[in-house]
# Entry
Amino acid sequence: MSQSAVSRCFKPGASISAKTRAKVEKAARQLGYQPNAIARGLITRRSNIVAVIISEPTNLNYPEVLSQLNRRLGERQVHILLFTLSRERDVNLALDQVWQYQVDGIIAAAQFTAEQIAACEDRGIPLVFYNRVYTQQGVSAVCCDHADGERQLIEGLLSNKRKNFVVMSGPADSAVSTARTKGAVTRLKQEKVNLMQVAGDYSYESAVECVHEVMSTKKFSPDAFVCANDTMAIGCIDTLRHDYGVAVPKDIAVVGFDGVGAAAWLSYDLTTVVQPVQRMVEAAVNMLLERVEDDSIPAETRLFAGQLRLGSSAQLEA
Amino acid sequence: MSQSAVSRCFKPGASISAKTRAKVEKAARQLGYQPNAIARGLITRRSNIVAVIISEPTNLNYPEVLSQLNRRLGERQVHILLFTLSRERDVNLALDQVWQYQVDGIIAAAQFTAEQIAACEDRGIPLVFYNRVYTQQGVSAVCCDHADGERQLIEGLLSNKRKNFVVMSGPADSAVSTARTKGAVTRLKQEKVNLMQVAGDYSYESAVECVHEVMSTKKFSPDAFVCANDTMAIGCIDTLRHDYGVAVPKDIAVVGFDGVGAAAWLSYDLTTVVQPVQRMVEAAVNMLLERVEDDSIPAETRLFAGQLRLGSSAQLEA
DNA sequence: CTGAAAGCGCTTACAG
DNA sequence: CTGAAAGCGCTTACAG
# Structure
């Protein structure tokens, strides 16, 4: 048994006789032999590992994203080296590790600086952003159309005769929150309505505090809360009902964004925009692996429309 | 510059003069050089990668576990190769990949067969289970004491004069669900109370169906629901309130298990057992890495008590 | 303290 | 179709 013969046996399409193949396979079975993917990667310069960098692991949306990613990549025999960031600024720490592990590509749900993006390019590591868009050239991304989703929600609330809006944003360093908040505010500024902005951090608890802040403001009595994610919208509904006896949606309408599982729970039945996670993940994986195969493929940004979910937390027209 | 000099420069404690070190570091900075961890792993037989295998990614508990794991392992410069299983039986597929990637160890929140455990041992790959216990020798595990947690909940419900219990289990192939259900049922069988068992799958939707099933059963009118996880407990509360106008906890008490974020939401304020995730993860990481360093260290099972959270979904005594 | 050499487990032209 | 040889980028005795 030569080394080469064994190697060819595990390489699909290599020229090898049925006889040698049988011999190798038998021995492999007896010894429990599996080719060493690390050594293979060293010579082929393909590790079949992709780094997944996520900065908001607490976002309820992310387990689904991660498990979809694992499924889609797994189908193509690609593995995930996982990096969850506690703070957005830890990107550099993660990237240092990424270089060392010779990953084939990066899927990032985190904010990169221009230098960080350039560093990936310099090293020839394809990079696809998930739910971040960059205006600069040559950056691939899949993204849910946050601005348009917010626009749809606001249209509905407006034709519902809502006049006094609260827009609740997420963490200041979250690009997703910024996009959503900006989408909502931009549309609202075109109308003659009152607008108050408050800053949460995506968490239920932060929404509770924001609602207290709003409700203790004299001279402003809101009739609609527009929240940057579902978790905060849920926090709003609970606080309004339990602490202020407000009827939702009769007195105040509440809308969220994401389409997490809890949005459909009977206590909330949230009006929200559902991100097409499956399609987004599929697109991200395809775009990344295409560019791994062929580095001449140009960058591309794909924007997916979210789907309006009409719940009873805000009775919009269909 | 010899290869050896560069190598020593990146190895802490190696004998190298300040002068050469400076020269190497300067060059490294200019070229953006980082040692290739893959090649290093090939020769040192240490990849600094740990496989994390999770079979219930939909469990709301798991994002926190994963992000804690990442933090704890990251502190020790160890990385996570992630495997999420859609079905418990995919363990073999995951393990095949695990062998190829020469991981240093495995953390598994999934059910392994005796053969699968033996395969890890044969290959000398340390294995620590998370929230699974095995009675066989030589298996390391950290686990929340599910049975004792259930016992505490049941004691409380009993001293509350509850008489007609529903125990709702999770998926049949989940060891965690089995342990919890068995803990509850064992304790209940010691008392003169009525008991009905129903089978959910950990999801909110399955709890809704279970409640319908129970409430349409003539001759049985429950006054306590004991659910194998928080998500189902939440589904119970919602269904009881919205579909049957039941007062929780006055008419029917509901308890869960896990201590997920939503348990504290105002609409639920769940009585549940909180898993000490931080401590459990810390223990799992320590146990695994100890055994990576020194394979003579014997296996160990560590059982952590869960902490009772007294919410208003069941008014237990303190 | 430093460098030349061997070797980790693979793949891949190259000759036969 | 098959095997010997070179080489991927490292680390680590070994000599100097």
Remarks:
- Residues 36 and 42 of chain B are 10 Å apart (CA to CA).
- The longest strand of chain B covers residues 49-54.
- The mean pLDDT of chain B is 93.
